[in-house]
Amino acid sequence: MTRSIARNTDITLTNLEGVPGKEIIAHYGLVQGSTIRAKHVGKDILAGFKNIVGGELKAYTELLQESRQEAVNRMVMQAEQLGANAIVNVRFATSSVAPGAAELFAYGTAVKVR
Amino acid sequence: MDILVYLTLLGMGYFIGNRRERKHYEDIKRREKSTLHVPVMSWGAKQELPYAHDAEMFVGSVVVANDYFKTISASLRNLVGGRVTVYETLIDRGRREAMLRMKESAIEWGASQVLNVRFETANIAGQSRGGMGAVEIMAYGTGIR
């Protein structure tokens, strides 16, 4: 279920200031991706039941994971368009923008490494 | 009738919630032991990069919710102030679980170290009634091999 977040892409993602073992030869600036997701009513009702006994809400965990993947994919797409082969210093942010909806945001610096 | 429903929910929250928490802690401790051989560092961004062939980012996340008993007990605690132990254990469980998920996927990939690990906590406002509905905790870092 949880694997590397760089899926179906040759782009290397790190949250370090570079890629270990490689040197940065070009900077392309900030790239970002975001998505806003609302939850499914059915899932919310189930989660309401789960709130009686507590613990992990698997449906939400998966929902947020999918959304974060989507945000990362958008960021990666932007980097590909710029001709980068790595994104360094990747950060994440989550904020709930409205009741029942959350924004997932990923950003980093697109670079070319050798 | 109402009080009966209330007490049932409270009892369910207490007994089932407690059992699940105990089980979860056992699981966490077991997995923490079995992943002990891979060091996890919270530094790595500002230092000289360690030598490695490959680097890749890994994310682990979990959404945890409190049970009915914890909600009530925390709202009572609100009256007098002080440590809210019931929430402390919940968040602790979530944070350790998120970190384990990140670590396990890094190990699966073959990481020898995980650098620059960061945690993030977000209230995703699950239920509207009273305080903390659900909290998402995520951990992310860069694995090297």
What labels describe this entry?
heterodimer; A: 114 residues; alpha+beta; four-stranded mixed sheet; 2 helices; 5 strands; 39% strand; elongated; B: 145 residues; three-stranded antiparallel sheet; 49% helix
Present the secondary structure layout:
The complex is a heterodimer of chains A (114) and B (145).
Chain A: E1 12-13, E2 24-38, H1 41-53, E3 55-56, H2 58-82, E4 86-98, E5 101-113
Chain B: H1 2-34, E1 55-65, H2 68-80, H3 85-109, E2 113-123, E3 134-144
Antiparallel strand pairs in B: 1-3, 2-3
Structural overview:
The complex is a heterodimer of chains A (114) and B (145). Chain A has 114 residues and is of the alpha+beta class. Chain A has 2 helices and 5 strands. The radius of gyration of chain A is 17 Å and the shape is elongated. The relative contact order of chain A is 0.31. The mean pLDDT of chain A is 85. Chain B is α+β, with helices and mostly antiparallel strands and 145 residues long. Helix content of chain B is 49%, strand content 23%. Chain B is built from 3 helices and 3 strands, in the order αβααββ. Chain B has helices spanning 2-34, 68-80, 85-109, and strands spanning 55-65, 113-123, 134-144. In chain B, strands 1-3-2 form a 3-stranded antiparallel beta sheet. In chain B, helix 1 (2-34) packs across helix 2. The mean pLDDT of chain B is 88. The chains are: A alpha+beta (114), B alpha+beta (145). Chains A and B meet through strand 1, helix 1, strand 3, helix 2 and strand 4 of A and helix 1, strand 1, helix 2, helix 3 and strand 2 of B. Strand 3 of chain A pairs antiparallel with strand 1 of chain B, so a sheet runs across the interface.
